[in-house]
Each structure stands twice: as structure tokens, then as C-alpha cells.
Amino acid sequence: MRLLLLAVCFILTACASTSKSDNYIRTTGVGNTYEEAKHNAFKEAIEYQVGVVIASERESYNEKLIKNEILAYSSAFVDEYKIISQEIIGNKVKVVVDVKLSLLRLSDRILSKGKDSKNLDGAKHDNQYKSFLENKQNGDMILASVLNDYPRRAYDIKQSDYVVKLDTYRNLTLTIPYTLAWNPNYIASLNDAIKIVADGKPSFWTVEKGIAQQYPSTVRVGSEKYYFNEFVIPNKLLDAIMDWNELRINMEIKDLHNKTQYSECFVPKQLHSRTGDYYNINYVKTINVGINQSSSESNKIELKIHQNSKLTHIMQNLSKIELSVVPKKVCVKNN
Description:
335 residues; 19 strands; disordered N terminus; four-stranded antiparallel beta sheet; alpha+beta; 23% helix; 41% strand
């Protein structure tokens, strides 16, 4: 059994080595190298200023914890910094840094602007970009911890009592009714993860220098709609639910020893009748993804068993029918 927890914790208390003045945060970092110490000082400043979202992904089996991965994501990156002091303490490097932060939610995706027409502040932009990427990538990992469960834990499938009939040619027909619906806990986790990494939730438009600019991508989960300044997150969502990860229903017939004797995948009709779902993709301008959590289906799987088929010859040893949700790639692999 796997338990996925997304616990959101905002750390708003100041550390002893951190203070704030004139929009700069003075912080201390210690590391094995100068770069590592500086990096730790940056992280300390971000935690002090805006808090850090902590996502804990745990896997357990027989109540024994086998995986515990802590991810950190914050909504800011280092814009400017000044090294106040640097010293060697034993085999460690200690730096005191004044740090100025900017939010990750960049309405026009401008990371920084030069102070004049010719001079390029490469060191500053390098730190800005690395800080920006690190936080964005941690956000990607938070989302991935939920998307990795698609589709196996994203849906609940319930099978009803089967029926065996004879057709007009004396062949058997095995019918298994089922219901398929989104797992509400999965939708809640997905909604929480998208909310953490979203760039904004405006009414419709942002106005920049008199020109209306629309966010290039949106994601809707249920009734909640989130806006993004990039295509990366919506693309990750599409990659997780489409193509080789697309939803399939796998039927397995097993014998008395729980060995699978027959397996076949079926395409649920829900894929063709998801009222409210939409995948509007225009890679030049926009990507819009919507998931309707109320979409479901009640249907049945029918399997014809011919007189001389393998299943008729081993019928007396068959003991179990199981329906499960799997990605399309599993079906292709098994075939």
C-alpha cells in the first residue's frame, strides 16, 4: 500500500542568523566550499522571507516506511546579493550575505534588466537563473509525486457480478459490469499540487504597459482554474495523462494458483465522453488543460470464448476475474 501525503507547511519564523533591512535580507551560510555556503545563505533568505512548501512523499508496505522524500519549493528567487564577509572556520566556509528576492510569478517573464546598454552582469544573472531553476524544479517534483500515480490510483473501478451466456453458435460470452470514476483523494492531491506551482489566478487578463497580455497556459481541476506563465507544467500534465499513459482497463482471468491465464485491455468509453474535459493545444500561443472530476461511466466488458479456445480447455481451473486501471503502455507491452 502506498500513502501519498502532500503536507503544506509555511515556515514564517526567523532564524537567529537572519535579519532584514532596506529590502535586503542579511543571512549566514556555511558549506564545504564558497559556492555551497553562498547557496545555503540564499536558501536561508528565501525561507525567512516567503516560507517553504514542504511536500512529503511516503511509501509504506505492511506499515513499514520504505521511502520518505522531502521536497522544498518556494515562490521566490535571488535577484541581487552582496557578500558582506567571508571566513574559513576549520574545514568549512562561512559567508554573510545581503540578499534581495523576487517572486517567481513573473507576469512578463523578464528575469532582470541591464543597468546600461553594454555591460553584462553575468555573475548576477547566473545566480538569478540557478536560483529560479532550482525552485521551479522542486515544484516540478512536487507535481510529479502526484502525476506518477496516474492512472493506477487516479481512478476507482468497481466490478459487479459477472454473467456467462451462450450465443447462437454455442460459444460462451463472459460479461463483467463495472463502474469507473475519478478517485476523489487523487483529485484533491492533484489540485493541491497544481495550486502550489501555479503562477497566478487572475480574473482574465493582466495589463502591462497598456497592452493586455493573457497567460499562455491554464490548468483547470474541477472548479478551480490556475494560470501559468510557461508551458512546462501543462505539458507535464498532458504527458502524464495522454499517449502511452492514457487510461485503459485491464481484465485478467486467473487460475487456482493465482496465475494469469488470459489478459486483455479495453478502452473505456469515458475517454470519448468526458464532458467538461478539454485539451486545447496551440504550441505557438496557448496550452489549456481541463479535468472534470465528476466524469464517470457504468459499462460492461464482454469476452467471447469460442468452443476450441484455450480458456474452454482449462475452464475447470479458472477461479478469478480481476479488473484494474493501467496505462496504455502496459497493454502494449503485454501484447
